[in-house]
Amino acid sequence: MGFVSTILGFCGFGMGSFIGLVIGYYLFIYFQPTDVKDPVITPLAEQDSGNMPRLLPEIPLWVKNPDYDRIDWLNKFIEYMWPYLDKAICKTARTIAKPIIAEQIPKYKIESVDFETLTLGSLPPTFQGMKVYNTEEQELIMEPSMKWAGNPNIIIAVKAFGLRATVQVVDLQVFANPRITLKPLVPSFPCFAKIYVSLMEKPHVDFGLKLLGADAMAIPGLYRFVQELIKDQVAKMYLWPKALEVTVMDPKQAAKRPVGMLHVKVLRALKLKRKDLLGGADPYVKLKLTGDKLPSKKTTVKHGNLNPEWNEEFTIVVKDPESQALEVLVYDWEQVGKHDKMGMNLVPLKELTPDDPKVVTLDLLKSMDPDDERNEKSRGQLVLEVLYKPFKDSELPKDFEDSNAVENAPEGTPVGGGLLVVIVHQAQDLEGKHHNNPYVHLVLKGEEKKTKTLKKSRDPRWEDEFEFMLEEPPVNDKLHVEVFSVSSKLGLLHPKENLGYVDIGLADVVNNRRINQTYNLIDSKNGRIQIELLWRTAS
Question: Are the CB atoms for 63 and 69 separated by under 8 Å?
Answer without folding.
Answer: no
